[in-house]
C-alpha cells in the first residue's frame, strides 16, 4: 500500500493503553497526533487547532464521541471523522455516518486497519482539494457572465434571474431567433 500523505490527527479515547499506542504509532506512520483522554479535552483541542482527521471513541466520560463528532462537524466540517468503539451496534454506526463520520472502526482493531482508513481519508482529502482547484480553474477559464442591457425589461430579467438562480428549477426561455437567449 502506498503511504498516505501526513495527516494532522486528533485522537480521543479514555483508554490509557490505546492513547499511548496512538501517541507512538501514528507519528511512526508519518502523522502528527494530538491525543485527548476524553471528549471535553477533544473539543478544547478543536478550538485551538484544525485537524485533517479525527479518531473518536464513542464511549468517553463527560462527553460522548457522538457529541464530539457533532461539534467537530460544526467547527471543522472538512475534518474526516473516524468513529471507534468497543460496543459496536448498527444503530451507533448509522448515527455516526448520518452525522458525517467518514468511517467506523470496532475495537480491538489492528494498526493495519487504522492505517488503511487513514490512507482512504488522506486520498479523499486530496480528491476534494483537486476538485476545488479544478472548479476554480474552470470558473476562471469561463470568465464572468454579464448580461448586456439596462432597460426596464432587462432589469426585470435580472430580478427574475436573482430569484431563480439559487433554486434547482428548470427554466425555459422563449423568444425570437437572434434575440440572445443563449
Explain the layout of strands and helices.
Elements: E1 8-12, H1 16-28, E2 32-36, H2 39-48, E3 53-57, H3 65-75, E4 80-85, H4 90-98, E5 101-106, H5 111-142, H6 152-164
Parallel strand pairs: 1-2, 1-3, 3-4, 4-5
Mind explaining what this structure looks like?
By secondary structure, the chain is α/β, with parallel strands linked by helices. The protein contains six helices and five strands. The chain has a five-stranded parallel beta sheet with strand order 2-1-3-4-5, sandwiched between helices. Strand 4, helix 4 and strand 5 form a beta-alpha-beta unit. Helix 2 packs parallel to helix 3. The termini are far apart.
Give keywords.
elongated; 5 strands; 6 helices; alpha/beta; 15% strand; single chain
Helix content: 40-55%
Give the oligomeric state. single chain
Distance between the termini: 49 Å
Specify the overall morphology. elongated
Summarize the structure.
The protein is of the alpha/beta class and 182 residues long. The protein is 48% helix and 15% strand. It has helices spanning 16-28, 39-48, 65-75, 90-98, 111-142, 152-164; strands at residues 8-12, 32-36, 53-57, 80-85, 101-106.
Amino acid at each position: 500500500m502506498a503511504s498516505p500523505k501526513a495527516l494532522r490527527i486528533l485522537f480521543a479515547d479514555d483508554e490509557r493503553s490505546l492513547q499511548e499506542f496512538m501517541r507512538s504509532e501514528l507519528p511512526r506512520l508519518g502523522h502528527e497526533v494530538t491525543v485527548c483522554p476524553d471528549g471535553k479535552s477533544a473539543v478544547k483541542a478543536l478550538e485551538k487547532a484544525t485537524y485533517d482527521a479525527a479518531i473518536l471513541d464513542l464511549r468517553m466520560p463527560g462527553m460522548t464521541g457522538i457529541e464530539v463528532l457533532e461539534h467537530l462537524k460544526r467547527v471543522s466540517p472538512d475534518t474526516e471523522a473516524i468513529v471507534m468503539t468497543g460496543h459496536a451496534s448498527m444503530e451507533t454506526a448509522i448515527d455516526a455516518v448520518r452525522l458525517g463520520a467518514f468511517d467506523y472502526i470496532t475495537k480491538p482493531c489492528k494498526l493495519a486497519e487504522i492505517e488503511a482508513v487513514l490512507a482512504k481519508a488522506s486520498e479523499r482529502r486530496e480528491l476534494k482539494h483537486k476538485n476545488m482547484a479544478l472548479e476554480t480553474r474552470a470558473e476562471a477559464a469561463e470568465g464572468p457572465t454579464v448580461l448586456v442591457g439596462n432597460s426596464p425589461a432587462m432589469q426585470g430579467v435580472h430580478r427574475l434571474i436573482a430569484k431563480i438562480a439559487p433554486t434547482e428549477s428548470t427554466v425555459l426561455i422563449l423568444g425570437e431567433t437572434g434575440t440572445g437567449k443563449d
